[in-house]
Write a structure and sequence with these properties.
The chain is mostly helical. Helices cover 61% and strands 0% of the residues. The structure holds fe (ii) ion.
């Protein structure tokens, strides 16, 4: 019973006492304050997120610029090497073209920008080889050959600071493009399928382009003759399965200029 004798409190008919009305008003006011605070907080968080997003975009754009600059520098180095030897003009571009065509036949999914950089940069280490050896028109002495054979490892050192841009495939081509299938190549003497496939592919197109280009000490070989020599080295210098793929590819090509 209500001790006041009034009938303002009555659960049964839904009426509310003044005390309860005050408490409800306080509760609603508190709720409204909290809601306003949450809205302010949400707006602040949104502004912080927006600023963070803008910073990320700016940073991403700067990294992309840096990446492009790095690659331009290394490509320039590769072209400097090529420019030193007038007899190998456009060798890089042709090797890249042949390499992409042959790789496509073997495994399309291997074609990445990093693989193509490997093709383009394979001889970048020649920047560290003395010109007297690099441009010598005749055969190299054993001593000179030892120096020349350091170019894959010099190349790996040159691109080492660019690991965020160039991946393992790029380094594989640079390091292993002079390995031989029989294990007698350099710099690591890897044998058979221990040699990365990218390098097994590239060593064939590199040799093919060398054979079908004029050199100071000989004229370019005819395509048939170059193919005969590649076939003769299948299982020795080259992976026989990759040579077979290259031969099939060549059936659709009439001249190196058609690539
Ligand atoms: Fe090389």
């Amino acid at each position: 019973m209500d001790p006041s004798g009034t009938s303002e409190v009555n659960d049964a008919d839904g009426r509310v006492s003044p005390e309860e009305m005050d408490s409800d008003t306080d509760y609603r006011a508190e709720l409204e304050r909290t809601r306003s605070q949450l809205l302010v907080f949400a707006r602040d968080m949104s502004a912080v997120y927006q600023r963070k997003r803008e910073h990320e975009l700016k940073l991403g754009a700067l990294l992309e610029e840096l990446r492009t600059d790095y690659l331009s520098i290394v490509e320039t180095l590769a072209l400097v090497v090529e420019a030193k030897d007038q007899y190998t003009a456009n060798h890089l571009e042709r090797c890249k073209r042949y390499g992409i065509a042959l790789t496509s036949r073997i495994d399309e999914s291997m074609i990445t920008p990093q693989l193509q950089y490997g093709f383009l940069l394979h001889d970048v280490g020649k920047i560290g080889i003395p010109e007297g050896i690099l441009m010598k028109p005749g055969p190299l002495t054993d001593e000179e050959m030892t120096v020349m054979r350091t170019h894959p490892l010099i190349g790996v050192q040159i691109v080492a600071p660019m690991r965020r841009v160039l991946d393992e495939v790029t380094v594989e081509v640079i390091r292993h493009h002079h390995e031989r299938f029989d294990g007698n190549g350099y710099p690591d003497g890897l044998k058979g399928e221990d040699i990365p496939l990218s390098a097994r592919i590239f060593s064939i197109v590199d040799s093919f382009d060398a054979m079908t280009s004029d050199r100071p000490y000989r004229k370019a070989l005819a395509l048939d003759e170059a193919l005969t020599r590649l076939r003769a080295e299948a299982g020795k210098q080259f992976d026989p399965e990759v040579v077979a793929e290259f031969e099939q590819l060549m059936q659709s090509i009439q001249s190196p200029e058609d690539w």
